[in-house]
Amino acid sequence: MLTVDRFEGNIAVCIDDAGQPLHISRSALDESVHEGDCIARGDDGIYHCDCVQTQTRRECIGMRLKRLMKLK
Q1: Rounded CA gap, 62 and 18, in Å?
Q2: Comparing 7-11, 43-47, 67-71, which segment has the lowest mean pLDDT?
Q3: What is the pLDDT of residues 27-57, one digit of tens each?
């Protein structure tokens, strides 16, 4: 699974599950992909948002943030 970290011009800087960066041409992404989205390559060769995985990860990050805020 890849996560879009940021866009730099026509390049999407993505991070794989091992934390390694991968640069993908923005033209290889579906137009609906945004920063923070989890993406997977479809049969058409285009990377599409995995909405379920994106939502799951965002909820997990939100819970971690809440736990960290309680520690202060």
Answers
A1: 21
A2: 67-71
A3: 999 999 999 999 999 999 999 999 999 999 9
Q: Which two tokens stand for residue 47?
A: 């990377």
Q: How many residues are listed for the chain in this entry? A: 72
Does the predicted model carry a pTM greater than 0.90? no
d(CA 8, CA 62): 26
Residue 49: both structure tokens together: 């948002």
Strand intervals (E) in the chain = 2-8, 11-16, 21-25, 38-41, 47-49
Task: Return phi, psi of residue 34, to 5°.
Answer: -125, 170
